[in-house]
Write a structure and sequence with these properties.
The chain is of the alpha/beta class. The chain contains 5 helices and 16 strands.
């Protein structure tokens, strides 16, 4: 199974079209909008991922802190998705299984500047959100990183979620993919889980980072970064 990860495109998704290599699954880890209120922003992204992105049998997206439409007007957001990209699967604290591999997605991040899907840092509430992640999750998709894993920003140091790293170390998914922290794009492995920060934009909101692709062996549950 070949999977491509992208994240934090903030309206610049069209610049990625020629960089996508194709495969079995394309996953976007949130922040496909800019301000997050304008339906036209969402429709442009939905039209792109449905019609312009070719070569993937499955496509999965989650929302991010800039995708306010999904928090403020969830019914309208889903209606737009059903209209403009009916083949794309949206996950919000939910899962989907493809070829025996379970994918779970969640948009929540520790509170910062009152963006969408913000939850008080290190609170019981955010702990309860992560407790919903199924034990048999193979690929975990969150918008924000866990603490200490590709979460460094020059403006605040390590800003990942304390409760999320605790949960991930407990569950040991094969892959944990996220974005949110543009300055920490890359890959890290801790002997059990491949952590991927798939942010395509840098801190200056320029699209400089390529999509990240992996091959996941469904039988032996092994991951190879390609």
């Amino acid at each position: 199974m070949k999977i491509t990860f992208i994240s934090d495109t903030h309206g610049k998704h069209a610049e990625l079209t020629d960089k996508l290599p194709g495969g079995d699954i394309l996953i976007h880890s949130g922040d496909f909008m800019r301000g997050g209120y304008d339906e036209n922003e969402a429709m442009d992204f939905f039209d792109w991922i449905e019609h312009d992105v070719q070569g993937y049998e499955h496509k999965i997206i989650i929302a991010g802190n800039h995708d306010r439409l999904f928090e403020n007007e969830p019914e309208q957001a889903i209606k737009l998705m059903d209209t403009y990209c009916p083949s794309v699967r949206y996950l919000q604290d939910s899962s989907v299984k493809i070829n025996g591999i379970k994918f779970y997605g969640s948009p929540h991040t520790p509170a910062f500047n009152n963006w969408a899907f913000n939850v008080d840092r290190n609170s019981d509430e955010i702990g309860e959100i992560w407790d919903k992640i199924p034990d048999d999750t193979d690929v975990l998709i969150t918008h924000g990183p866990p603490l200490g894993m590709l979460d460094y920003t020059p403006y605040g140091g390590d800003v990942g979620c304390e409760r999320l790293i605790y949960k991930v170390l407990q569950l040991q998914p094969l892959i944990h993919v996220f974005g949110h922290v543009h300055s920490s794009y890359g890959h890290k492995y801790n002997e059990t889980t491949d952590f991927i920060n798939a942010s395509n934009l840098n801190e200056a909101y320029k699209l400089v980072n390529d999509p990240v692709s992996v091959v996941l062996d469904e039988v032996f549950k092994k991951v190879e970064i390609i």
